[in-house]
Amino acid sequence: MNLPLNIDLQQILLHMLNFVILFGGLYFILYKPVKKFMDSRASRYAEKEAEAERKLRDAETAKEQYEEKLRNAEAEIDAMKADAAAKAESAAAAALKKAEADAEGIRKVARAEAEAEKTELLRRASREATGIAAAAAEKAVLGSAEEAFDSFLDNVGEGDGR
Amino acid sequence: MSKKQRNISLAVFFGLIAALLVGIFLTNGAEKTESVQEAMRDTVLHEAARINLFGLSVNPAMISAFCVTGILLLAALLLRIFAVPKFKDRPGKLQLALEQGVGLFDGLARENGTRKTRFLSAYIFTAGAYIFFGTLFELLGFQAVSTAGASVSLPAPLADINGAIAMGVTSYSIILFGGLFAAGPRGAGRALKDISLPISMSFRLFGALLSGAIVTELVYYYFSLSFVIPVIVGVLFTLLHAVIQAYVLTMLTAHFYGESTEKHEKKKKTSA
User: Fold this and answer.
1) Domain boundaries, chain A
2) How confident is the model at residue B257, as a pLDDT?
3) Could you list the residue range(s) of the whole structural domain that residue B128 is in?
4) Which residue in the set B59, B123, B166 is minimally distant from A23, CB to CB?
5) Does any domain span residue B14?
6) Nearest-by-CA chain B residue for A11
């Protein structure tokens, strides 16, 4: 069969045969081993990347947990502070109450002692006044009235100067 | 640079220019052994120069195709034996170049092919390597003896229409059967919808490589300075075609393969 442009079916088939041989040879000799190496390297790097991402996620989770713990610790510290403040306040109140009670006791004792001392002083003054009166009466009876009066004044002056 | 060195450099420079001018004038009167029509016809059709291959009369490009395949397979074997076992996680220059080659076509397949991308990437890797190195092969200027006893320079395998048709039809078959296996009859139907694809792929390859060859041939034919300018033009055109055609065919194959293997989800019937 004469085709234009020198087209020859036999030569077309020969070219195809040549190309098929080349395709098979290049695929098995070169393409497949190179591609296999590239794929294995890519999968190795993908695994490494996945591993790194997993570790990063773990680290982020751990960080969040620590931050949560930190936040809880701050709250715990605040609670402990509040508790300690309440305790200190109640201890101070108790101490104040006790001090007031003690002061009241001291005041009572002092008041009683002062009362007793006053009573004693009054009793003594009364006794001294009675003595002076008795002495003055005795003087009046025994001496002149002026002398008695002077004597009385002197005694009174002595009593005040004491 | 001393004065003496500068004088020597200038003398060499002007001597080179003078030698080139002498060459130009000496070669100007050379007689053409064939007309430009004959040269163009031979470049396009390869009717005159036929080569005997085990009893078969074939175009020179057929020999080029087998040579390219042999060279590529030998290179692959050497790389497999000496380079691949020494691959490291941090690649050297050779490993990087190989990985770039494989990765480039694998990426192209993944971008376009929705399913069975491994097969597609292997195919376009081979097609890309074949077109690229096949196009560069003509730069080597290997000679063969035609059936008429003349010396023939071996062209790029795809500069022959038969090689280009083989490449286009193979690529279309990959798209068609890839669609059939991956997406069933619907996938094959999508590939059949683009029935003009093998023709367009074939003639695109052939036309692109041929245009470069024709321009180079014309420069060879008409230009007096046949030992300077054609070298630059030929190398530049060949390199450009090698890169562009390898990219275009692999990209088109990946694109149409992706379309044919795409699996459409069935639309759910909605009750009114």
Assistant:
1) 4-161
2) 87
3) 32-261
4) B123
5) no
6) B162
